Amino acid sequence: MLNQLYAHVKKTLPPKRYQHTLGVVKVAISLAKQYNVNEHRAEIAALLHDISKCMTMKELHFYVDSDETLKYYGTMGELLHGFAGSVYAKQELKIYDVDILNAIKYHTIGRRGMTILEKIIYLSDAIEPSRNYPNVDLIREKAITCINEAILFEVDKKLKHLLDINATIHPNTVDMRNCIIGEIGKN
After folding, report:
1. Its pTM surpasses 0.90
2. Cα separation of 52 and 86, whole Å?
């Protein structure tokens, strides 16, 4: 099945997006080993995280609108690809593992109470080898020792950027940040 998924993703995504996906897979498998998460599940979630990234808005809405629980998210624009991707993975690729589907769904905006697999995919997308932005190496280092600290550092950079450009911040991202702070405080 895994070979079929790789072939499908390679056929579906343009070469540059496919290379990004392979980078996310590499990081996700490494972090899964680090945090005692099933590597096979991490590989599948990472492989499919951007499966709908190149869909048109009409296609994204087709998938999102087919899931009644996602109606609230219909105004997210391009960020909708995680939600559409989770529906696509379930409907078209017959992936039924809820943790994998949630990791795909929330890989861009996060959410309160993320599982460790969801955190791995969220962070792997941000720090895969082709990512090059200020302090990405520091986030990569933090990921090895404390995934929550790495996510907190990454999301703070993201929020600052969004504030600087006067962009909308999804409430899930703020909830994720607050939840992570609470988790760090408990350790």
Report:
1. yes
2. 9
What distance in Å separates the CA atoms of residue 96 and residue 103, rounded to the nearest whole number?
12
Please give the chain's pLDDT, 187 residues, in tens: 899 999 999 999 999 999 999 999 999 999 999 999 999 999 999 999 999 999 999 999 899 888 877 766 656 677 889 999 999 999 999 999 999 999 999 999 999 999 999 999 999 999 999 999 989 999 999 999 999 999 999 999 999 999 999 988 889 999 999 999 999 987 5
The pair of structure tokens assigned to 145 is 């020792």
Residue 112: burial class (beta carbons within 10 Å; 0-12, 13-18, 19+):
middle
**Helix, strand, coil percent values for the chain (each to nearest 5):** 75, 0, 25
Conformation bin of residue 112: beta by default, left when phi > 0, alpha when psi is -120 to 50? beta
Count of CB atoms situated within 10 Å of the CB of 126:
23
DSSP secondary-structure letter at 56?
A: -
Q: What domains are defined for the chain? A: 2-186 (1.10.3210.10)
3-state SS, residue 182: helix
Q: First and final CA of the chain: distance in angstroms?
A: 39
